[in-house]
Amino acid sequence: MAGFFKKIFSFGKKEVVEERIDETTPLPPIKWEALEALKPAAEQAPHPPLDGEGRREAAGRGDGADADHPHPQASLRTSPIEGEVKAAPELAPVEEPKPEPAPTIPAPEPVVPSEPEPLPEPAPEEEPAPETPAEPPAPEEVPPAAPEPEPEPQPQEVPPAPLEPEIEPARPEKLPEPAPAEVPAPAEVPAETPAPVEVPPPATPSTQPSAEASAAPHPPAGTFSPYRDGEKAEAPTPHPPLDGEGRRAAAGWGDSADAGASHPHPQAALGTSPIEGEVKRTPVEAKLIIGEVAPAPAPSPQPSPEPKPAPGKVTVTKKVEQKAEPVKAPEPAPRRSWFQRMRDGLARSSKELTGNIAGVFTKRKLDEETLQDLEDVLIRADLGLETALRVTDALAASRYGKDVSDEDVRSIMAAEVEKVLTHVAMPLELDLSHKPHVILVVGVNGTGKTTTIGKLAAKLTDGGLSVMLAAGDTFRAAAIEQLKIWGERTKSPVIASKIGADAAGLAYDAFERAKEAGSDVLIIDTAGRLQNKTELMAELEKIVRVLGKLDPEAPHTVLQTVDATTGQNALNQVEIFRNVAGVNGLVMTKLDGTARGGILVAIAAKHKLPVYFIGVGEQVDDLEPFSASEFARAIAGVA
Ligand SMILES: Nc1nc2c(ncn2[C@@H]2O[C@H](COP(=O)(O)OP(=O)(O)OP(=O)(O)O)[C@@H](O)[C@H]2O)c(=O)[nH]1
């Protein structure tokens, strides 16, 4: 017995056990053990006081681990089984032995005191699971990877100690997890089998995950929400130390004191820091940790950091945009010359015409039939009867009865068309003795009056002339705004009035204003109107009459815009406007992309009015002086 007690005393902590034994009435067991003590070594010594068979069993298991706390704990639990009432008092003493491991890990102990009561139980439960050798290594491995991410979450969480209450609910689940981390020592716990039943399943699996989860999952979680919220890992940086401490404590505790308080301590520490962090981050994350931590542990941490890349991608898109910008620079593609544009525009007219001509003169001698066919082709091309006869007459005069190719025919046609146009292809001359030189622009709706005014104003202002614009189209607000835009672009003042105002009155006012301003040129826009609209045509006539009151020679130039796509109706338009407004010049618009450009030749042949410009587009510089030869060659398809 003496030796037995000595051994007990040597354990120190076990001394308490002896006293307890006395209280619990271990007398019968004492005798029984005394007998055993005589037989075996002192190994069973601690057990005797514990008395129960469980003690023996525990002793057998804990032979090697006796020194460890597990024994006291085992005794506590075992005894509780017999008389749980007593177990409570024993628990306190049992934890006391923990201090022993504490020396090894002083940090954990301080934490334990506050949570010892609840924690001790869960810890022992978890311990059994940790026994699994494979598991302990896992947690250890985890820490390395986890430490980096974990630190972040903890720091934030640590400060808000009050938040722990929220965390605690989650702890029960997590608590088992931290225990595994401490597993190293827990291996001794196995004796605590009773509780393990519940714990093991969660503990072992959870433990690793928990340890990792706390570590791995936490980092991710921390990375997720924290990053987004604070984004700044700056907060995390402070955490690392905290985590490290918590982890170290956990690890240390597990190593030495795992059995008893060690578990609660690490858990508490782990749970508090990581849990808090997770909880705050987002409920979603918490779910991940609790529910599927085990499967996710390793991957979860990784995915968490990955989300960060997402924002990185955003930056990438920005870079892409920047790259796109430089691409825009080269966009300014070289613009085709006006002639090329006119040529392309007349391509449809030319292609149809030359194609038909080729169809007539394919390996055929020139005779009356072929000449008649050619005349029909030219007329259908809107060149007009007069121009068609000029071409057929010229062809018959030189090639009648001979083989004629379509190229010969096109060449002769170009020459004859040029002859017709030469007399009308004149440059616009402005008599600046008039201050201002008044240009009245008329025409049917949509033929390009306002656009042509803008283009012309640009040419004049570019030439150093001062220009004033008058919005005589008082019927359409859009027309007024359109002219104002052109005025801004050409830096030309625009005189306008309210919708529905008298156009003649506006023209008169504008003329006076231009005189007062000393403008070189006044360009007056008018409302589009069909030549068969008597009232509108009368209004146009009135405008001309009113302008004449200020200057008998005004308007000095009356330009009519003619839409090349109009066809034969253009001939009638020019005739009417010429009679009503005294048109003395034409601008053939929309020659770009029409198959009816031949009408220009017909108009020129019939009215012999000057064609100052041709419109080959909607841009400001798409107004070109009319060239008879170029137009003729273009429409005839002659290079
Ligand atoms: N392709 C092409 N379009 C043109 C040309 N000239 C004018 N346009 C377009 O033809 C349309 C009518 O031009 P406007 O200048 O408004 O014609 P408008 O005669 O003033 O019209 P109203 O005020 O309604 O009488 C606009 O879309 C112009 O961009 C041209 O030479 N080529």
Automatic annotation (TrEMBL):
It is found in: Cell inner membrane; Cell membrane; Cytoplasm. Residues 35-332 are annotated as: Disordered. It is a peripheral membrane protein. Residues 50-71, 318-328 have a biased composition (Basic and acidic residues). GO terms for biological process: SRP-dependent cotranslational protein targeting to membrane. SMART domains: AAA, SRP54, SRP54_N. GTP binds at residues 443-450, 525-529, 589-592. It holds the Pfam family SRP54. It catalyses: GTP + H2O = GDP + phosphate + H(+). Residues 100-122, 130-163, 296-310 have a biased composition (Pro residues). GO terms for molecular function: GTP binding; GTPase activity; signal recognition particle binding. Keywords: Cell membrane, Cytoplasm, GTP-binding, Hydrolase, Membrane, Nucleotide-binding, Receptor. Residues 610-623 form the SRP54-type proteins GTP-binding domain. Its EC number is 3.6.5.4. GO terms for cellular component: cytoplasm; plasma membrane. Its main location: membrane. It is an enzyme of class 3 (hydrolase). PANTHER family: SIGNAL RECOGNITION PARTICLE RECEPTOR SUBUNIT ALPHA. Involved in targeting and insertion of nascent membrane proteins into the cytoplasmic membrane. Acts as a receptor for the complex formed by the signal recognition particle (SRP) and the ribosome-nascent chain (RNC). Interaction with SRP-RNC leads to the transfer of the RNC complex to the Sec translocase for insertion into the membrane, the hydrolysis of GTP by both Ffh and FtsY, and the dissociation of the SRP-FtsY complex into the individual components. HAMAP family: FtsY. Belongs to the GTP-binding SRP family. FtsY subfamily. Part of the signal recognition particle protein translocation system, which is composed of SRP and FtsY. SRP is a ribonucleoprotein composed of Ffh and a 4.5S RNA molecule. NCBIfam families: ftsY. This is Signal recognition particle receptor FtsY.
